[in-house]
Task: structure prediction
Amino acid sequence: MKLYLRGHDYKYAAEQMLLTLFPAQRPEYPAGPPAPGEDALVLSLHRGAVWATATAALSYGGREYRAARRCRTAELTDPLSTDRALQRILKLAFYGAGTAARGSEPPWGALTGVRPVKIPTKAMLAGASPAQAERLLRDTYRVTEGRRRLAMDCAGASLAALRSLAPGEVSLYVGIPFCPTRCAYCSFVSADVGRALKLIDPFLDALCRELAATGAMLADAGLRVRTVYFGGGTPTTLSAPQLDRLMGELAEHIDLSGCTEYTVEAGRPDTITAEKLAVLARRGCSRVSVNPQTMQDAVLERMGRAHRADDILRAYALARESGIGCINMDLIAGLPGDSAAGFRASLEQVLALRRLDRAGAGTLLRFRRRKERYLPPQYGGPSPLGGLAAPELTGNDVRWKLRFDRMLAANAAIYEELLGGLSLDGCPPRYGVPVILTAGERDWTTPYPLAAAYYDTLSAPCKVFLSLPDAGHLPFQERPEEWSHILLDALAQI
Result:
């Protein structure tokens, strides 16, 4: 959709409301005026002596829709409150015109971003009753009843967490607004690191100065840091030396002797390395987030993620091996392309990982590396963890596979001998009896291409190759009904 901003430059506010109301549309900022009949929004702001007024003129589907919202100019007392108030009326004006064009309102109403709980929490901290805070969600932001209940429940939990701080204690948040790529659902202020690489070092310089100033302010006020949270963006987008510098500056300027939880959001598995985790562990990080959001590869792709579910498992194993005591993982329900069954499968697979201890994760990771190293390239095949994220797998399946992987890791030397110098050339196998060879196309213990090559090489009075897609090393166990049917067919041929 073409966006025309008049009297302001609040692109973020316009784009977030566009994402909420018309998720399939992408913002454009043309130089010329709107053309007749095109989908376009003219979002205007006028600041008068008494009122600041936002006006939305939306052309959509060949029709025109208009809405306006205003706030008192007296509310615009400082730059921060001014920005918040003006963005609010601009978004609400867009919302009024947009919902008229849609003919419906979204469940969260005019709220954008990922923290709807902030609005009722701030209202109650300012003295509002729970009923007044809920009316704010209902009347101003048009939030539906079910979502209002959820927001109020979360606000209660947030206030309880705040009350858990002793007098003189604070929680410290350090924001890193960089990510490898921007996810389709994200409304955080963040920059694609590929396009913003030159900004990282200047940003770190400024952030280190801010840490020094914050430390001095906390000391003057006699305040102690109870918890530290590195969020973003994705903090592990930074390199290991950059993380080391930043966490070192934090420790130098701020007293962490009373800190009970030190969290770094590693978030994206494609940013997690052993070197970075070693820095986090050495600098006192006690909790790290490895956030899959989903374990479904197709959904990850639609989100705009550049990694697969296997990479999440690799990152988890690295985190376990690092010695950091607590690992948390986030999942998001309702992602584009996901289903209830897919979300359940993701949840079960993540829950199954808690049974994988540090030693088990380490052996699994080391074996994966050995297997990739010694498996002849011509036989390729999926990674050792391939198939683990298949939607049909249950939590028990995952736990069984992880235990089996540990057993194989203990026998890695045997695999090095078997696979390292394996060749079928010059010694084609010969059998005097009929042969039925069964192979799962997702088998990595005996890689499918290796099984196929073996079948092509062998000679027998009669031979049949039973190939099962979406099966691993034990197709008769993983796909018993399919396997039985094709086995009976093969026996009939023989």
Observations:
- The chain has four domains: 2-104, 112-164, 167-374, 424-494.
- The CA atoms of residues 24 and 275 lie 39 Å apart.
- The chain has 17 helices and 13 strands.
- The radius of gyration is 29 Å.
